[in-house]
Amino acid sequence: MAGSRSDAPVVIAVAITGSVPRKADNPAVPVTVAEQIESTHRAFEAGATLCHIHVRNDDETPSSDPDRFAAVQEGLRRHCPGMIVQFSTGGRGRDPASRGLSLQHRPDMASLSTGSVNFPTIVYENSASLVSDLAGQMKQHGVRPEIEIFDLSHLHGAKRLVDAGLIDARPHVQFVMGVQNAMPAEEHLLDILLAETKRILPDATWTAAGIGRYQAVVMDWALTRGADAVRTGLEDNIRVTKDRLAASNAELVGLAAEAVSRHGRRVATPAEARAALGLA
Fold first, then answer.
1. Domains of the chain, first to last
2. pTM over 0.90
3. Signal sequence: where (predicted)?
4. What is the pLDDT of residue 4?
């Protein structure tokens, strides 16, 4: 697959907040616009070159307010020069019709789930019509999608978007492993997913996200297999160890950078990250 070389620099993506209210569990999770900008700036200085963004309402519930997305993006463009800004179009707590509203602000990238899946307490619904609509909006606004893969069938959902001309033939694919009721974090499953991706989307770049206690192990599996990027951050995992909460997104990015080095690779610069993922 494109870019998946053992000597290529590695993009570190940081998912700073998530959509589930968790600030009471860990005060390090940034919620307000100012907190998100500051937390991301520190993560950028630690080596992150892609930021995945959710925003919250004043009561900390998930928000689709495009102005809040725009405010975070403005701060990141000012304080984190060259960092890839990626908006979430995820659906937890958000009306489907509002999930693409932020795309008018033209972030570099946006997440795009290509099928529905069971989550711990809900069904994460992504109907075929909604997926096509979001992909069309991304194409209209010049936003590069990151395809979120929670199930093998979602790869074929991405291939249908390629065949329909809604995304190009070099998508960036993220395998999400370890969500309760969804795809388990098992190493042999990553090999199956990679083999199918290579078969139907041979030019794709790729990464993998491990949720909760699986964050570090999935990162190691991905680096062993020459991933183009790794993902970390408080959205996915709020602990460094079973007994210790992470102090910040920057701490988790630092641990990711150490993992990259252990695997004989180096952390991508902002310019290298943009080149690797097909961005100007």
1. 11-276 (3.20.20.70)
2. yes
3. none
4. 77
